[in-house]
Amino acid sequence: MDSYSNFREFYEKVLRSDLEEIDRERRKVRRQVLIILAFAAPALVLEIVLIPGGTSFPKAVPIILTSLTAMILLGIYGRSFRSEYKTRIISRVAAFADEGLTYSPDGFIPKEEFVRSRLFLHSCDQYSGEDHFKGKIGKTEIEFSEVTAKYLSKTGPGSKQKEDYYVYFRGLFIIADFNKNFKTHTVVLPDRAEKLLGKFGQSLQSFTGGRGELVRLEDPRFEKEFCVYGEDQVEARYILTPSLMERILAFKNKWNKDIYLSFLDSRVCIAISMYKNLFELRPFKPAADYAFLAESLRFLTLLIEVVDDLNLNTRIWTRE
Amino acid sequence: MVWAITAAVIILLFTALLIFNSLIRRKNDVENAFASIDVMLRKRYDLIPKIVETVKAYMNYERELLMEITGLRIKALSQGISAEDRVAVENMLGRRLTDLLVAVENYPELKASANFLHLQGTLNEVEEQLAASRRAFNAAVTAYNNSIGVFPSSLIASMMSYKRRTLFELPTEIRQEISSKPPVNLV
Question: Which of A234, A246, A316 sits opposite B132 (nearest CB)?
Fold first, then answer.
């Protein structure tokens, strides 16, 4: 990976001209957006004022049609703009972060992988994602993307039943090769119960939600932050060595977010809960903004560093 | 009044039954965890002759160390060795194997041998799993000791003649060598 200090040079020489071109495009789009709004807004006012109420003609129809047309046009303009920025700029920032990293703006970690990790007990009724990165860092295959998972909640009786989707996870989902082979499933979850309720919370942890048994580990700091469930007590400890526990704690402190880990099929899935939408262009701010792009690179670097953070490239055991 | 006494007795009996079952479960957890240590120790016994055979041809100055490792393996496998002595022998064996892997650094040809690298990977694996089994055993013993030490389960435990179990002590330096860092960095 190129060093972080070179990014300024990379930005000036490689990205800047493209960003300025995108900015010109953005200004053009902004003008078009303003024109759409200039037509749509008075049209809406006229429709509201001039169409008489109480007639057989439904007053809401033209208003909804005008609003929909305006929103579709704004969406089309915004979308072209966004994909331009992602394919031309973010893909090159990814290559700068690591040559082997490929980027797909609309790709994401498949739903099956997310569900199989068994990190969340809600049913995954609506799932989406974007910004998929994939590559090999040293010996470790890694992929990650932003994902959003929602569950469906039905309330009310019979025909009046109301359906609502609720977000239970939004953030980054990483899948990486692990440096050891294992056969059973182990999950590491943020320990909210113990943090809030102390000893009483500890006893609540015995509810495993079908994820095996509660695994109590020796490190009190780790136990305070995380709660571990595993199908096999020994294998959970084979994976979670004192050194890995230390590394996971440091990883958590580095991100300062809720971290979930699932160890399955000799791979590790990591979910980082985060509401910030990364790698997006801000429609009303210039694209050619070094600080903004440097922040994207910083997040990308942090994500790639997970391989070092969890020491995944060290293959001194039987797994090559 | 009779109903109240009957209800109290039923609740008491039910609680005693729950405690009884939980104590048996904890004792079984300890036995299972100890069995998994034994499996790993046996894997290590099987591996040692292969390692000694492979390194013997290359190592001219470590004969004493190799003999000591072979001797410790025989001692650990001997019938009639007490549990405490066995722990001491196993710890010593672990330490000597680490010494051996450190000594390998002085023999570049050996270090490059594919056969040795494979054996070393397997040994690291066994040591890592052994460390995990020991930690699982200690966790099971701690839970067991806690449950027989606190009231009211201590009453039932004493009726069942359950005694406190000793933890599988692992010297700090070995624990770090095995669990935190690999004995020899191959990367």
Answer: A234
